[in-house]
Amino acid sequence: MGRQVAITFRRVTRDDFPLLGGWLAQPYVARWWNHDPTPAGVERDFGPGLRGEEAGEDLIALLGDRPFGLVQRSRLDDYPDYRAELAEHVEVPPGAVTIDYLIGEPELTGRGLGAKMIMVLVERTWTDHPDAPAIIVPVVAGNRASWRALERAGLTRIGSGDLEPDNPADPPLHHLYRIDRPPISFGRRLP
């Protein structure tokens, strides 16, 4: 039996931009992310976060030492228009966080790594954002692999509704998933 390799995260750096461009150019990523994978496009989309001009976090997911994915995490309160769009369909508590994610390495897709990455990120979110009561994630309804990964990671579908799709080729129907911060568990007091 092989040993389990840990999934960790670190902030995106400028040195990651070529890697991000390569991942965004992968057909299975480009289908859902709809980003410009050129150096100028990656700079436009990820430079503001790197310079602190964007409220969200761009994180590289690592499997051991190997970068394999990207996660974007943000507080919905920092994006009031987007928060309002989601709130038309589901309750969005103050302080709620949202995520987006991809696996950039083709040979690592289809192995359950997306769900594991999401599980680790959820646990890290409770630590990194101690006042976040929930994580809410909209996924275009046609992206079955993405919403199945959320389900395997423990998120629950709480609604569906029309939202502006990332890719204009997609219909607007999205499924909305949520996971709440677990309650604090106090152990038994010893006599």
UniProtKB/TrEMBL annotation:
<keyword id="KW-0046">Antibiotic resistance</keyword>
<keyword id="KW-0808">Transferase</keyword>
<dbReference type="InterPro" id="IPR016181">
    <property type="entry name" value="Acyl_CoA_acyltransferase"/>
</dbReference>
<dbReference type="GO" id="GO:0046677">
    <property type="term" value="P:response to antibiotic"/>
</dbReference>
<protein>
    <submittedName>
        <fullName>Aminoglycoside 6'-N-acetyltransferase</fullName>
        <ecNumber>2.3.1.82</ecNumber>
    </submittedName>
</protein>
<dbReference type="InterPro" id="IPR000182">
    <property type="entry name" value="GNAT_dom"/>
</dbReference>
<dbReference type="Pfam" id="PF13523">
    <property type="entry name" value="Acetyltransf_8"/>
</dbReference>
<dbReference type="GO" id="GO:0047663">
    <property type="term" value="F:aminoglycoside 6'-N-acetyltransferase activity"/>
</dbReference>
<feature type="domain" description="N-acetyltransferase">
    <location>
        <begin position="7"/>
        <end position="182"/>
    </location>
</feature>
<keyword id="KW-0012">Acyltransferase</keyword>
